[in-house]
């Protein structure tokens, strides 16, 4: 197979946009100090480096891990490469400003971020329950960062040094750059710029913007003058003189008619008609020239002596011309779209959905326009101004960022008494990405529940093959504990490396939210050949035993390249492969912008064929979302039937998580579909709200859990589907009800020994003897339960639990005897997949929590997954 070289984004493309390359700046004078082993976290470390002060101090809610998967390390090392002295304040005590003075006063600015995760998603589950751990903290302990960390940290920085500018960024700030729905307070909150009182907000991939800002501040330019950097947001007054010459498009309402011109009286002369409008012919001519009549000379009254000339902002609320078929023709680089004000979207969900739609239509760096949203307070009007998104990094720039001298380990301050990071002080997030390699950024999938597009963009930014190989060699040679296995070679998705639009011109003009929905765009090249070549080169490296692919696979893209599936399944799957069909029904899939289940079936067929050809028994692990907007109860019932028919049982199930600014969150709040034009009468969306209904959708995904059977029986009867209640294989749930504790216990917790409990090897710990009579009485309390069948089941269960030689141990002995006769030695690990959820900045920023469906364990090496009875 001949493999074409991967397409790259050359620096010549960057020059067309008027942007400077990351490496084209003149280094700051402190470049002479050279790179630090770790960016300093204390005054002692600064002294060792010969620094008397920091130019920039980064404050983060994560522990400091000097690894390219952690945002503070990437931004810190990128600024260090420009010659700036960068210090780190990680997980400070936010109860006073003292911790924010630890490194002294920064010369240029504070950079504040909540961390790799939104602090609220980090703290709370989809059911608004407090989490008990934090994977970005040493030891995994919770409580090291506050709620809404960006707001709190910014306030403390201002208290510590009032005259130092504060620039906020990261995923938390990016997703809150305009008025946004807050799931935890169930209301629309103001832009985080307004609440935090920060001087500037940087959203998306921040390298290009933060370098430009740092160099301007080092030139003693005031931060208030930095208003033209892409990927930034700031506050400004509506009547600023600097806005002269801008065209403003009003988009503050829906269902609004166009401008209605008054009918002219045929009995009036031109002069009389002008007088009737309170003007005269000369003024009308001047107004026409001010509106931009082509070729018209600028005329008007001269300003009074000593007074500056005042030019009004050009407000365009109607069509200027229609020379190219578009409704409105204005220069995009001088056009701003006014979104509905915060006061409007706060009280009008329809306008909120409309604002969300406009925002997502302006995300392509090639054609996006500036956005502005009014935030009034105390009778004072101020605007949040969003410049267009940043220009994506070229391949050369991506290589520069990832080739910086990262230590690839946590800061020594987190080491235990033995200098190790592998025991009590281990940082779980670092452990999960310790031996993984990020090869790209961005995602053009456009899933509505995901925030990658809002943060990283839908234009893929890829590293070169040589850069990826260098990082694998660095892991092999420098990272302690490497056993020869690379845990992942991916990013937000596994198989979008060097895939993009065939034409740069089409890509720059495109306004579609997805390149693969409802079908794969004909302008998208889907050649996986370069990725196959990268896999082969990587696994051929000396000392590398295995390259696994842990990132989520975009399977609708993969089926366009059967050779890639063959390569992946043969060499890079460790028994189980994670993919995300999310649902089986067309209703919710259309609101997610995900392909139909037929695409999954096609991929499954190719996966199984490739596995058989490789002589391997491997399984797909599908992910599903419960309670997503647009999901009816019948949709969840059909999904449960599909799961049972295909022999899947979901281990961990949670519900859709409305993260700020996601399209699905706008659906959740407004009940409207922002994927289409939003009007008062536009398509309504079925929203799953309320504890009972959300619990019901989770119960359908865990149809096999007896704790869910009473609720499912009641619901199926209400839906007129009592035919699914029975004890046959074609039924969804049985008629009997065993004794349960009414709670859900995950597979991991269920298979763990409780603290202080001693269990003999190979012998399960049994609880108190169940009482069949008590269970029979309890069965009458369950609606739809058959007491006779229930009692029979209870007695059979007692016999299984308390039969000594004829019970579990006897069956295990018999099973071991059969295995010895057949010459097969089973592995306990085969019974359940060891799924490790990768938590890093490359994965979707926790916008939803999904079910992990696992196939039922085969009874023998040749058995197929069984359908549970």
What does it look like?
This protein has 869 residues and is an alpha/beta fold. The chain is built from 30 helices and 25 strands. The strands form seven sheets. It has an eleven-stranded mixed β-sheet with strand order 3-1-4-5-8-9-14-13-12-10-11, with helices on both faces. It has a four-stranded mixed β-sheet with strand order 22-23-25-24. Helix 3 (71-81) packs across helix 8 (207-218) and helix 28 runs antiparallel to helix 29 (787-802).
Task: Spell out the blueprint of helices and strands.
Layout: H1 11-16, H2 43-49, E1 56-60, E2 65-66, H3 71-81, E3 86-90, E4 109-113, H4 119-123, H5 149-160, E5 166-169, H6 170-174, E6 180-182, E7 187-189, H7 192-196, E8 200-202, H8 207-218, E9 232-236, E10 247-250, H9 270-276, H10 281-290, E11 314-316, E12 335-338, H11 342-347, H12 349-361, E13 370-377, E14 380-386, H13 395-402, E15 409-410, H14 428-433, E16 436-438, E17 440-441, H15 452-455, E18 461-462, H16 465-478, E19 485-486, E20 488-490, H17 504-509, H18 529-539, E21 546-547, H19 555-558, H20 562-571, E22 576-582, H21 586-592, H22 597-613, E23 619-624, H23 633-645, E24 648-650, H24 663-670, H25 691-701, H26 709-718, H27 747-750, H28 772-779, H29 787-802, H30 808-822, E25 851-855
Helix pairs in contact: 3-8, 12-24, 18-20, 20-22, 23-25, 28-29
Could you list some keywords that capture this structure?
869 residues, alpha/beta, 11-stranded mixed beta sheet, 4-stranded mixed beta sheet, 30 helices, 25 strands, 31% helix, globular, disordered C terminus
